[in-house]
Amino acid sequence: MSSHILEVNPDSQLEFSLSHSEANPRCVMTLKHPGTSKDHIAFKVKTTQPRRYLVRPNQGLVAPGNSASISILLVEKDKQALLQSFERLGQPGLDHSKDKFLVQSCTAPESFASKKSSGESSELYDALTSMWSSVTSGGSSTPIFNKKLHVRHVVQEGATSKTAGATSTSKSMPSKLEGSSDMSVEKMSHEQLVSEFSRLRSKYDELLTFSVSLTAERDILSNTLEQTKRDYNREISSRPSEGKTSTSSSASKGSLQSTMMQLLVVAIACFIAGMRMGNSGGAVGEEA
Fold it and tell me: How far apart are CA 29 and CA 14, in angstroms?
């Protein structure tokens, strides 16, 4: 195995455990530096479903002998859709997921290590983004190592049976408890505390889901920007050759036109000379 390939755990499959009690199922992936070289290794994590998963961090730097933990969050909306699919089809309905993750790694310049040690996280992030754009577009000779992982969704036992009870309980709470946050905690009864906690938990889940959606949109825009930059660079690099081709073509056309004009001038000169010779010949015949 190459000394520049990160050890990925789990090795081949990421498993998400689904339940109605857990708002956003998580999965943790560990990237470990093999420690067989002194080079820092840069990594980037991609997925075929960027709107479904929130990956943090999605790129970074791993020092020799160290490791990095990647947190992968499943968006609440997609979790509910998967649970509905499970209720209709059972586990076989989830076993044919086409979701995949790709972990890319390569050696990083020494300047990146200094940015990491000095705590310049924003500069390091921008430098990594620029480096990956150059490496993936063929602008660098640095070799890239890829590791693919499949995704499996598993529903916890009894997860679907307790949704109805939880939903009806939350809806049957008295409306006056909506303003219970204005009351002192010491004056609340046990039921009011439970209701207040449930309400705050619901608000927290809504904010978390909204934050996940915004972050996913940002990642999509970032990937689109990188692709646009790569297309732009390819177009710019192809323009000089197109210019040379058009220049040589126009030069050849100009040379052809010049040759044709010369032939035309020679033909006209020959025609005029022939006419003059014909006239002079006729004059000599008449004198004879």
Answer: 8
**Cα torsion 80, 85, 88, 91: sign:** negative
pTM listed for this prediction: 0.56
∠ Cα 14 18 19 (to 5°): 160
The angle at the Cα of 70, spanning 141 to 3, to the nearest 5 degrees, equals 40
Q: What's the token pair of residue 142?
A: 């640095």
Q: What is the distance between the alpha carbons of residues 215 and 36, in angstroms, rounded to a whole number?
A: 35
CA–CA distance from 221 to each of 32, 54, 283, 288 (Å)? Answer: 29, 14, 91, 99
- C-alpha to C-alpha distance for 272 and 275, rounded to whole angstroms: 5
Render each residue's pLDDT in the chain as its tens digit; 288 residues. 455 589 999 999 999 999 888 878 999 999 999 988 889 999 999 999 999 999 999 999 999 999 999 999 999 999 999 999 999 988 888 988 899 999 999 999 888 888 887 777 888 888 999 999 888 887 778 889 999 999 999 998 765 554 444 444 444 444 444 444 455 666 777 777 777 777 787 777 767 766 766 776 676 677 677 777 777 877 787 776 555 555 555 555 565 566 667 667 667 776 676 666 655 554 434 444
